[in-house]
Design goal:
Length: 230
C-alpha cells in the first residue's frame, strides 16, 4: 500500500479535527477506517493514536477501542489561570514600552477582528476559525513587541481541554459580542496607557467562557462533551 501521508501529517490533521470539534468528545476512532482514509497501513495509525493519547486527546482502551477524551473543565480553567497571569504581565509591558507603530499594528488587528465577527448571528455559516485566528493575532502582537514569542508559542499550542473549550464557547454561548467588547477595551487601555485594571479585564475576558456557558454544561446537548465529574 502506497503511503500518502506521514505520521506527522496524520497527527496534525487528527489533532486539528479534534480541537475544532469536527471529531467530537467521546467519539470512537477505528484503526481500519483511519488507515483507509489516509491510504496507509494500521502501523502508522497506531503510532498516531499513541501520540494523541500521550498528549491528552485520546484514551486507548484495550479490547474496546480508541475514544476521544471529553473536555476536562478543571484543566481548561487551570490553563485560563495561566493565561490571565501571563497575558496581564505582557500587556502591561507592552503598554509601557510600545511604539506608535506597535499600537497601530494592534489597531489594525482589531479592525480585522471586527471584520471577522460579521455574520456571527448565523453560526452555521460563520467562519469560527478565521475569527479565532484574528482574536489570537491581536494578542500575538504584544507578545512579539515585548520579545516573548517563546512564551506565546507555548501557550497557544493545541490543548486538549482549553482549545476545545474556547471553541465550544462560541458555538454554545455565542460569545462574539463579548469578545469584541473586551478587545475594544484592551485597545482603549493601550491608547490611554492605562495599566491599573489589566488583570480585571483579562480575568473577565479569559474566564468568560465558563461564565457564559454556565448551566449549559449540564444539558443533554453538551453533557457528552465534558467529563462527568464536572
Amino acid at each position: 500500500m502506497k503511503c500518502q501521508y506521514s505520521v506527522e501529517e496524520i497527527y496534525r490533521i487528527l489533532e486539528d479535527e479534534i480541537v475544532k470539534l469536527i471529531i467530537k468528545p467521546n467519539e470512537m476512532l477505528a484503526e481500519n477506517s483511519l488507515a483507509s482514509r489516509f491510504s496507509v497501513s494500521r502501523t502508522p495509525i497506531r503510532s498516531v493514536l499513541q501520540l494523541l493519547q500521550e498528549n491528552g486527546f485520546l484514551r486507548i482502551i484495550p479490547g474496546k477501542g480508541t475514544f476521544v477524551n471529553p473536555i476536562n473543565v478543571e484543566n481548561a480553567a487551570e490553563w485560563i489561570y495561566l493565561r490571565v497571569a501571563v497575558e496581564s504581565t505582557v500587556l502591561r509591558d507592552f503598554i509601557r514600552s510600545s511604539s506608535p507603530t506597535d499600537i497601530e499594528n494592534v489597531r489594525y488587528a482589531l479592525s480585522m477582528l471586527d471584520e471577522a465577527a460579521k455574520g456571527a448571528e448565523d453560526l452555521a455559516s460563520f467562519d469560527i476559525n478565521n475569527f479565532l485566528q484574528r482574536d489570537l493575532e491581536m494578542h500575538r502582537i504584544w507578545f512579539n513587541a515585548t520579545k516573548k514569542m517563546g512564551i506565546w508559542n507555548t501557550i497557544t499550542k493545541p490543548h486538549p481541554d482549553y482549545s476545545r473549550f474556547i471553541r465550544l464557547d462560541i458555538l454554545g454561548a455565542k460569545n462574539v459580542p463579548d469578545v469584541l467588547k473586551d478587545h475594544h477595551e484592551m485597545m482603549d487601555m493601550i491608547d490611554r496607557k492605562e495599566t491599573d485594571n489589566i488583570e480585571e479585564l483579562m480575568k473577565r475576558h479569559l474566564y468568560g467562557g465558563i461564565r457564559r456557558l454556565g448551566s449549559k454544561l449540564f444539558t443533554d446537548e453538551y453533557k457528552n462533551y465534558f467529563q462527568p465529574s464536572f
